[in-house]
From TrEMBL:
GO terms for biological process: fatty acid biosynthetic process; secondary metabolite biosynthetic process. The gene is fabH. One of its GO terms (molecular function) is 3-oxoacyl-[acyl-carrier-protein] synthase activity. CDD domains: KAS_III. Homodimer. This is Beta-ketoacyl-[acyl-carrier-protein] synthase III. It comes from Mucilaginibacter straminoryzae. It holds the Pfam family ACP_syn_III_C.
Length: 329
């Protein structure tokens, strides 16, 4: 019997309307457009404004658009893996909330927390369900309302992050297309350099934690940068090597969008020219779990069946990983 691969058969995305520009940030913190652009590549990011709106509210239009594109109903989805660092609530899982909102009555699901590597981990785990032969429609969603955990008085973080959500449908393919390989890595000793200190069982919410700004994302940028630059490039090079891919064999690199300099270092290590590297960081900033699916969504029209695509990410935890896939449509 032919091996079953998990193929992406549809992608979609959603970004909120509100555009937070570098110019507007200049009025909020001591920063400037020149610094942000040259150090990160970001010009603007989207912010989900409005009372009572959460991460799942970006996932709903993204997934509904995907279902329409693929011509299937929500009831056909069997499993939802919701990759997010900003779930609607600590529990229940945002996967459950999404399933309810879109009417995915036959699906079970869970949230996957791997910070910025979430979508790569989500594809890797989602693929296993398909490869086992037990599942035929697995929805992997990656999205974050980062603005809900950002301190807009902290210039070390507020210039970087934005809100957005993307999704991909995995279905079986026996013609050799789909996810061919994945590498997922974690190193918990990096937890002190990028985290949200309070709100978990270690430091439950209290007046003290709120006063100490511990419900916001905290990042030691330089340290994270060093690990990210090394590990994202390394893991992308590793997946190429173990699949005997030369740089000319790779059609596209889809990197996590944390910093243009980290993306450039990864592309250099892989020997790729800039026209093969997907970058939208200038418009959306770092949407954490949303970056990779939003790139897939925006570049979908340019992909050709059989294109070798390498995804790579690095995030808090530390977490990092890479997926190698052959585009299936
Ligand atoms: O997605 C998950 C993983 N996250 C990442 O991959 C992020 C990795 N880190 C980074 O991308 C970068 O470290 C940052 C973009 C966060 C910061 O860039 P950097 O080049 O590492 O800057 P830095 O922290 O070393 O600061 C350089 C200078 C400092 O001034 P002095 O000490 O040289 O006078 C900072 O005070 O820039 C100053 N600075 C700023 N200036 C204007 C720091 N933040 C800002 C700012 N605007 N927002």
């Amino acid at each position: 019997m032919q091996k079953i691969h998990a193929a992406i058969t549809a992608v979609n995305g959603y970004v909120p309307e509100y555009v937070l520009t570098n110019k507007e940030l200049e009025t909020m913190v001591d920063t400037n457009d020149e610094w942000i652009t040259s150090r990160t590549g970001i010009k603007e990011r989207r912010i989900l404004k409005g009372e009572g709106l959460a991460t799942s509210d970006m996932a709903v239009p993204a997934v509904e658009g995907l279902l329409k594109k693929r011509g299937i109903s929500a009831e056909e989805i069997e499993l939802i893996i919701f990759c997010t660092t900003t779930p609607d609530m600590p529990f229940p899982a945002t996967a459950n909330i999404l399933a309810d909102k879109i009417g995915a009555k036959n699906a079970w699901g869970y949230d996957l927390q791997a910070a910025c590597s979430g979508f790569v981990f989500g594809l890797a785990t989602g693929a296993s369900f398909i490869e086992s032969g037990r599942y035929t429609k697995v929805l992997v969603v990656g999205g974050d309302k980062m603005s809900s955990i950002i301190n807009y008085q902290d210039r070390a973080t507020c210039i970087i992050f934005g809100d957005g959500c993307g999704c991909a449908l995995l279905e079986p393919n026996t013609e050799g297309y789909g996810i061919i390989d994945s590498i997922c890595k974690t190193d918990g000793s990096g937890r002190n350099f990028l985290n949200m200190k309070a709100g978990g069982s270690l430091r439950p919410a209290s007046h003290e934690t709120v006063d100490a700004n511990e419900h916001y994302a905290y990042q030691e940028g330089q340290t994270v940068f060093k690990f990210a630059v090394t590990n994202m490039a390394e893991v992308a090079a590793d997946i190429m090597e173990r699949n005997q891919l030369q740089s000319e064999d790779v059609a596209w690199l889809v990197p996590h969008q944390a910093n243009k300099r980290i993306i450039d270092a990864t592309a250099n290590r892989m020997g790729l020219s800039s026209d093969k590297v997907i970058i939208n960081i200038e418009r959306y900033g770092n949407t954490t779990n949303g970056t990779i699916p939003l790139c897939l969504w925006e570049w979908e029209d340019k992909f050709k069946k059989g294109d070798n695509i390498v995804l790579a990410a690095f995030g808090g935890g530390f977490t990092w990983g890479s997926v190698y896939l052959k585009w299936a449509y």
